[in-house]
Design goal:
The chain is α/β, with parallel strands linked by helices and 119 residues long. The chain contains four helices and six strands. It has a six-stranded mixed beta sheet, with helices on both faces. The longest helix is centred in the last third of the chain and has 14 residues. The model has no long low-confidence stretch (mean pLDDT 91).
């Protein structure tokens, strides 16, 4: 899966997801640190990359986006320490059928995963 990691996730996540076979880029890799959400979303869509973020603003953007977007995972941990974020996101991409999430809005907490499929 082609993935874009937002700047609010640990950089060490990129090589871990790549080791699972994913094509991963980060907002930092692309010189987009501090860019507004709309610009990051547009770049992810142009590259057909599934966006992983902690930023709830992307939920609103994805809801308003035309169907056929690449999808987004919103990671919403109560205490989002870097080690907890690494463990949770890595487990999701290791254990779940993420390839079926194109166009989906996915929300994850420590214990739950909710997938909203496009209408």
């Amino acid at each position: 899966m082609k993935i874009k990691l937002d700047e609010n996730l640990p950089l060490r996540l990129a090589p871990r997801l790549a080791a699972l076979g994913h094509d991963v880029v980060t907002v930092r890799d692309e010189g987009m640190l501090g860019a507004d959400d709309a610009r990051i979303w547009e770049a992810a869509q142009l590259e057909e990359r599934f966006l992983v973020t902690q930023d709830l603003g992307f939920s609103e953007i994805a809801h308003g986006a035309p169907s056929g977007h690449a999808g987004v995972l919103l990671v919403r941990l109560q205490e989002p320490s870097r080690p907890d974020l690494l463990r949770r996101v890595e487990a999701i991409f290791r254990d779940e059928n993420v390839e079926s999430w194109a166009g989906c809005i996915v929300a994850s907490t420590e214990r739950k995963l909710r997938v909203r499929h496009p209408k």
